[in-house]
Amino acid sequence: MPIWTLHGNGRTVAPGEVVHPGERLNWPATIAIGAQHVVAMFGATFLVPILTGFPVSTTLLFSGIGTILFLLITRNKLPSYLGSSFAFIIPVTAATASHSMGTALAGIVAVGILLLLVGVVVQVAGIGWVDKFMPPVVAGTIVALIGFNLAPAAWDNVQKQPLTAGITLAAIILFSVLFRGFLGRISIFLGVVVGYIVATFQGEIDWSKVADEQWFGWPTFHIADFTTPGTWGAIAMFLPVVLVLIAENVGHVRAVATMTDKSVNKQTGKALIADGVATTIAGAFGGSGTTTYGENIGVMAATRVYSTAAYWVAGIVAIVLALSPKVGVIFNSIPQGVLGGATTALYGLIGIIGIKIWVDNRVDFSRPVNQYTGAVALVIAIANFTMNWGDFVLSGIVLGTVAALLIYHVGNALARARRTGADDGGPIPAVGPLGGDPVDAL
């Protein structure tokens, strides 16, 4: 692996320059930026285990370990922090409720192995086939339906403590519009802090377990269970998550390549392999599935520091925090009202990210195939259509994903065969000025 070279004077980044993955600032600055990455990912990463009932410390431990594995597998050429993926929330919640945590972990392991295999194929054959299999209209639909499918879970928490939930949500929105840069990007984390303080004054937090826990100790481990009856049926709910992780990892690589060097795109296959390995290991021993994090892309964009050295620091800091049971109990004490307010924003943002994929890629919704790809899949997910064959259950996320893929690919094939013009004809040309209000013709 390349050894980091010192960028400039090691203290500052000149205008128009960036600190590349193989470079670093001086170690005090690098450590400070690494710690900042931990703060950036913390708000989202700790919410996933809280919402799914997983141990926070265990998830944080495998998040740090996964980040270090990612850096090793990509040979220090791709900066990334691997935090908890929200795409796992619904299948994990469903599998835990109907079977056990071991079954949910088996699903996470299955996703990790499949993602690893996809990464091997991408490394050998290139990324082009992924773009064809999951074009923007399909990718955006799948991401959006996962977020909107979660809406009832947010509402359930809001109803438990509506005042706390409302204050938390209001704080998140206010922080996002009042602050620029890094503080604006961690608005969810700051909103949760405000909600936690409000809940404390209202007596909604149980502190009894916090005092009993030690400051240092090993987190709780659980083992994936592939033997319980119905486990393999439950695993089917997890498979669409692979598509989301592919989209997130590919997007991460492209974002870093745009800001640093186009050669970074060559790491796409390794990035998928690395995330697959990290997710598999986390699922095998009780952690949440992992993914690359947009929050950390934001930190890199703000600081212009893309050094992988900072991510080694972040991974180590996360592991150290995970070895404090007291920290885990504090996060587990977050009341339902705070979670309800935060997830109302988070789940909605997941849906909006999917819609942003449509907008950024100028998906043409005048074409019937694109219309029905999004329309049918979203309704299936929002209403949470289900199909049951004994212990084998397909949820709204699975059915919505399958519907999106079938409608797009089969619909295009039929439209082209019949030459009806109803197929996806590709991107449409730009109309009017981009990035501003349309100008009326004189």
TrEMBL record:
Topology versus the membrane: Multi-pass membrane protein
Transmembrane domains' residue ranges: 46-73, 80-98, 104-130, 137-155, 161-179, 186-203, 223-246, 309-331, 337-357, 392-410
Major location category of this protein: membrane
Keyword 4Fe-4S: no
Keyword line: Cell membrane, Membrane, Transmembrane, Transmembrane helix, Transport
Subcellular location: Cell membrane
UniProt keyword Transmembrane, yes or no: yes
InterPro entries: NCS2, Xan_ur_permease
Family recorded in the similarity comment: Belongs to the nucleobase:cation symporter-2 (NCS2) (TC 2.A.40) family.
Protein name as annotated: Solute carrier family 23 protein
Native organism: Microbacterium kribbense
